[in-house]
């Protein structure tokens, strides 16, 4: 039986669809067991004593301890931690033990529901056990990994529970019948649990929510999204969103079940009591509309990153949730423009090669993916940001030369180019923006020879800001075609705004080009648009009276198009004035005449234009060295105060546009708005 959730009334864009829902169960991440409270997930004060040697969990207060410690002990969580500490090889999986501990806690708090292990659902939630655990020789490595997690995890959980009960705690390797109950609970966790993150995006733990949330299906073009709030954050809200109603009802396509729902068996009211009575502790989840939803329409969220190409989304959904997505976006034929762009590569010189038909897009994609993953790995795992920047710039400007194909003498080999909106390109921009920023910060920190380092730091900071603007522009273009990208795009604009403001406010400027007065900017006033004040009011100042929906006390986004257009027009204006300056230090960026104008990629024949564009710009690849120091001073002075003020305004508008989009997805009190307040307070 397939469940879905439908809107019980018309829902405007940017509104809470559910009240904050309490979890059925939750577990803190392994890495935080000794530094955070296991009941409320808040950081603990630094330890006066070295941490205990045996695995233990900690609480911030007697209240938290009272609430959680009985469940901790009775669930066999300590036994599991001890067991796996002494025998790490029994569960060698990278995600840690939080999923297993969550499953143990769930088993303990829902004892009767799992015995005997039901085939389909526990507590109304889908386990997918048959599909997940009985998956025959896995066709892809990710599915294999999940199969191993289930098998090893259920064995370890069962052993921990036997130890708790004073029985033999050996981890059995045969007779899987004993672990069916644990297996079902773990499958349920893998299928339904949600990651809990702090304001900076760090994983705090995992949580499992009841039917009101877990019955919401996936779509690659969803009309809702969700955020998880810690209890401490909800308690500090100026007005209580506890009062907001549950605006969705369960629906089942089968006749029998529909009748059940109608007769009140699982009506919205029952779901509401479920959410209120179960547990008033732990991280809460809130679902929010990112599009207008009509009464009776199905409400969907994304279980995977919707900025990935279709093939990737499908393989992730299949390996983790065992379903093939038939959403409108996935079913579009020909593929939607966004899905086409996200995996498009083009080939140059294919005609000159005798192996004309040798252009194999799959092979090229594989090679490009490997190359880019390798470069990003240099940065993420080894911390070598310089090598990463060089490799990524190389592949973006030079393309991938197909040296394996034979070609006639005197002709150029075929070269594969990433579409500038290919998801690999987007990954590359993300990494470059971050890597250049890191390099700039490192250089400033080194700061031994005053001028030399500063010039380079200035360059790096500038190029990083340019890439973050390019990323925001590129994804904003895709967002025009696929409105569900709003959450990703919001983050990219905020990052761009932050990088641009960092760069514009950098102390390095004062060495060569002190700005006389930034007061006009400091007041966040823009002479061109009338909305900055309004947006600040919505996103940042909490106490003013706001234009709210009389029914649910929520901010209205009825003039969304007008506000975004005004902000974007200003972004375009300011970008025109500063882009030439931002890209001076980077050859790859010079191929983008305007980081916000991607619409010509939506036309046919873009590929030829793009290729000739890159080729003509790629000629001067050798870096123009010279007296760098003087060049830097000259450039900065030439750009001048007015240029720098444009940079500040651009940064501010990007930040506001990002926070405006973010307030739609995450509400006016989200991590994003706190973050923005911090940036602006500077
Ligand atoms: Zn606590
Ligand atoms: Zn889909
Ligand atoms: Zn403006």
TrEMBL record:
Q: Which domain of life is it from?
A: Eukaryota
Give the matching InterPro entries: SET_dom_sf, TPR-like_helical_dom_sf
Q: Which CDD domains match?
A: SET_SMYD
| PANTHER family, alphabetized | PROTEIN SET DOMAIN GROUP 41 (PTHR47780)
List the protein's name: SET domain containing protein
Source organism per entry reads: Parasponia andersonii
